Amino acid sequence: MERTQGFFAALKQEVARGLSPARARRRSDSADLDGPDPESGDGDARAAAGARREGWGRWVRGQLARTPSSVAAAAAGAGAARNDLRLLLGVMGAPLAPVHVCAAEPLPHLSIKDTPIETSSAQYILQQYLAASGGHRLLASVRNSYAMGKVRMVATEFENAGRLVKNRNAARCAEPGRFVLWQMAPEKWYIELAVGGSKVHAGCNGKLVWRHTPWLGSHAAKGPVRPLRRALQGLDPLTAASMFAGARCIGERKVNGEDCFILKLCTDPETLKARTEGLAEIIRHVMFGYFSQRTGLLVHIEDSHLTRIQSTTGGDAVYWETTINSFIEDYRPVDGIMIAHSGRSAVTLFRFGEVAMSHTKTRMEEAWSIEEVAFNVPGLSMDCFIPPTDIKSGSVSETVELPHGGEKNKFGPPPGHRAKVAALEKTDGGDSVERNRSTGDFDFGNSK
């Protein structure tokens, strides 16, 4: 027992060191911070005083000559960067799969008699996928798992009816970060992701899915319990196979030069209705899985959901289409299970409706790599999946993360949240690896 506790403590310390983001180095302008350096000569006191006054005058004139517009532009740039980061984390940080999945339930038996060819083909493709991933018996023996990795997120372009703005320094402006993911059968998971000085925590105890962000606090997710989409990206083959158990094979396509079968999964109307909240209605959510014909592995996931938001003033509804394309790469065996160790995602937010030619489109990208994976980690308990105690009453749908304003504040938080965000940022952090019951995180170092 002591060896088990020691191993788990060492593992958590290693995660703590890896997840704590480095503080940004601040540069100071000595010319602006330091006072004037008056000349000193061999003349009399009056000449020296005049020189000091002249030096001081030059310094003051230099300060007054600084254009306020440059200062305002710098502040606006910093605000835009924060808003971009909020949108990146809100949409790409911890998205959920479209339907409820229970990996403990066996997959349907492969049957050809009285079964449509699209369904029987999908079942055959999933059987091949499980075999290529390590076999159903080995995958079902996994009681829990742990993965740690790195991410880089960036907003690459914004388009409206009048102009297209591309981020030409996307590679340099990408926000680096790290994440850690814990899973336990059945249907329990917890993720912590830190990017650009902000953290997103999300988890599921098998009955409730919740998320904590600095700008919204802790809230429960609307609708049924659903898996974390990031786990489907090559980290949990059994859950991915169970996700597509009700899918149909709709054809073939090449993905990065690889011939693939395509499985299509549509969310049922009951689930869509359960995820609908107030004026925001989820109209459809479709997921496509691309399985390599050569290896049998899942190499690409595409999902898209369409949301209609009714106007509170009786005007036309606004439609949001969110599309996520994920390419899954670098499969390597870990204890006999094939795990994808890298990948990339492209997210498109398309807003239309209201009046003609008023659409906007925002494109974001993410690249990730897996540094460490472990199965059946000793010492992992149910305490790791306890929801926060300050979850607000009721549930919140994923549409709360969509920017509802115009172009000027398309990424900005509501004004009433500013004081709350500041308070949360002040209290977020700490060096302890103990679980914080109010936020649900493990406090893997300070997030500032």
UniProtKB/TrEMBL annotation:
Compositionally biased tracts (Basic and acidic residues): 424-440
Positions with biased composition (Acidic residues): 31-42
Region entry Disordered, spans: 16-53, 399-418, 424-448
Domain of life of the native organism: Eukaryota
Protein name: Lipase
Organism whose genome encodes this protein: Triticum turgidum subsp. durum (Durum wheat)
